[in-house]
Amino acid sequence: MRNAWLLMRGRTAATFAAVLLTWGAAAQPDALDSAEAATAAVEEDRPDMPLQVRAFQSGLRVTGISVAPRVTLAEQTDAEGIRTGVVLPEYMRPERFLGVAPQRLPLDMRLLWTVEAPSAAPISPRDYAVELVHHQGYARRHQTQNGSAEDSFPQDAKAACWTAHRFAAAAHIPPGAYDVLVTKMAVPVQTVPLGQMLLWPSAIPRPEATEKLTEAFPGAISVFSGDAALTRWFYMAFPIPPLPFAARKLLVVSSADYLEDAANETPVATITVEYASGQREQHALLLGRHTASTWHRFHARGSVKHRQAPIAWSWRVVQETAEFDACAYKAVFDLAESGPPPASLSIAYDDDREGILRLWSVAFLP
């Protein structure tokens, strides 16, 4: 049985100690047989990953987890031909993840529970809620529905049951590693971490974004225009459409979040252009020159430590207590290769930098 692991805010991963499950000496034979039968019946539907985490004070313990939909850590290709992949550092061992799920889709999570100590009163599964917390605290994703079939947990020692937890689609949630926390909401409140799962990035093309690109940059041929986000370890590779001209410049429209403390010229991502000839060239996307904080104008004077890059376009954000402009920034790179057209283009987030890079448009210019 594999251990569940917890990586909390940059701390070293730690294994939860295995707990030996012992039968109560005073259990009656009939009750024991019933509990064994219930456990066997539930466990015919095996979890994606068995868990060994500490029990709640209520006597309940989570012993398995299943997640749907789920993907693998292999490179993914979507319907538009956009490829997304991840290059994990050595300390992020893949077997530690409770699951890998698409970032923007609804998420269904099922937890397998074992009764360690019978309770005097029935305990409702709806007293327990699941939350995903970004490992750097950027975002939280709360369950939106507890769809557990039973009204209460079984009360026989060693009995087992499933609970169901649904998370609505959340386009604003960035990709990356998330801590999975289960909280008993009734007093006394208690939270038990289960481990960490990975939310996989996606790129959503939007026709209105292509229109905005061509309006702001006449003659540009879009490779991607829409909504995409990259965080550390991830990359995206875009298919290149036939170009009606010899591409001389590359245009990237982007913005950055949670990088307000980063200085000018800090590299955020590496852009790689590969040509049909097999040659390739790379460009660094730098804060203060090519991109900047999405909310640069909103932050208090002096709180952003890099310059505002040249603005591609902006939009008005209206909140209950404030109105402000959010900005996307333009970076234009000269292409060195002449002759064969570009064959592929990829953007990889800088592995050493926490934060979020938002991609609004990638295009070629004559």
What does this structure look like?
By secondary structure, the chain is mainly beta. It folds into two domains: 5-200, Immunoglobulin-like (Sandwich), CATH 2.60.40; 203-365, C-terminal carbohydrate-binding module (Jelly Rolls, Sandwich), CATH 2.60.120. Strand 21 (311-318) and strand 22 form a beta hairpin. 7% of the residues lie in helices and 43% in strands. The model is unreliable at 1-35 (pLDDT under 50). The termini are far apart.
Give a short account of the largest sheet: 6 strands, antiparallel
Number of domains: 2
Mean pLDDT: 84
**How many distinct helices?**
2
Q: What does the overall shape look like?
A: elongated
CATH architecture of the largest domain: Sandwich
SSE string, helices as H and strands as E:
EEHEEEEEEEEEEEEEHEEEEEEEEE
The strand count comes to 24
What is the CATH C-level name of the largest domain?
A: Mainly Beta
Write out the strand line-up for the largest beta sheet, numbering strands in chain order: 5-6-17-23-19-20
CATH topology of the largest domain: Immunoglobulin-like
Describe, in short, the structure shown.
By secondary structure, the protein is mainly beta. It has helices at residues 29-43, 207-216; strands at residues 5-6, 14-15, 49-50, 60-68, 76-77, 83-86, 97-102, 107-115, 128-134, 140-142, 145-146, 160-167, 176-184, 190-200, 203-205, 221-230, 234-239, 249-257, 267-275, 280-286, 311-318, 323-334, 342-349, 356-365.
Topology (SSEs and partners):
Elements: E1 5-6, E2 14-15, H1 29-43, E3 49-50, E4 60-68, E5 76-77, E6 83-86, E7 97-102, E8 107-115, E9 128-134, E10 140-142, E11 145-146, E12 160-167, E13 176-184, E14 190-200, E15 203-205, H2 207-216, E16 221-230, E17 234-239, E18 249-257, E19 267-275, E20 280-286, E21 311-318, E22 323-334, E23 342-349, E24 356-365
Parallel strand pairs: 7-14
Antiparallel strand pairs: 1-2, 3-4, 4-8, 5-6, 6-17, 8-12, 9-10, 9-13, 11-12, 13-14, 15-16, 16-24, 17-23, 18-22, 18-24, 19-20, 19-23, 21-22
